[in-house]
Each structure stands twice: as structure tokens, then as C-alpha cells.
Task: structure prediction
Amino acid sequence: MIEQLFEFIGNHLLLVGLFIVLLVAFFINEGRRGGSSVSTTELVSLVNRENAIILDIRDKADFNKGHIVDAKNMPYTTVDRRISELSAYKQKPIIIVCKMGQTATGIGKKLKEQGYEDVRRLSGGMAEWSAANLPLVKN
Result:
């Protein structure tokens, strides 16, 4: 099996090279589009050192089951009409948190288009936060 893989790569260098270039370009584009991703440790550091704002875009029910301390809840479906509520934080780092770290990219792109300078997203979302056994506030 491995021998066949190496044989394929050897016979199709151009195709494999193009695939790698496209894969790298995809990840670079996704990273720029919705803000860079941060780990749980980086999130804590940004909050403590730079007074970063945590924007939790999960629905209210999930937010009430457990969220990061001082996180602001703005469900994904309401961001478009409520984005003006964040205008006071345009100069601060904003870290977007969702369930798994996937939907935060779209909101990050919207915030960047509205002029927010430092938009980031929590890698792995609340699933990663919970897996690290970090504290949650429950309503």
C-alpha cells in the first residue's frame, strides 16, 4: 500500500505538487477570512493582558448550559442585526466562540468587513474549552 502511494507520487509529481499548493492556499485563505485561530491558553492570555472580548455565537440554550466567564452571547442568527452592539469594541481583540470552531469563521469575516481590527476565533470552540476542563459559568 505504501509502495503504491510512493509510486503514485513519483509518477504524478505535478498533480501532487498542485494538490499541496492548493491545500496550503486553502488554509491560508480560511485563516485570513475569519481571523486567526487561538488556543484556549492564548484566549486566557488575551483576556488577561489585552482585555479581549469573548463573543459566544451559540444559541441561548447552549450558552446557558455553560460559557466562558464574561462572554457576550450573540447567537449566530442574530449577529447581522446586532453587530452595532459591538461598536465599542472595534479597537479591542474580539475572540469568537462557537460549538466546534467551525461557524466562527463566517462571523469573523462579517466583523472584519465592518472594520473590526483584531478578530480571532477559538480553535475547537467550546468543545475544546470543555475538553481542557477550563471553568464554565452556568445560568
The chain has a mean pLDDT of 91. Residues 1-33 form one domain.
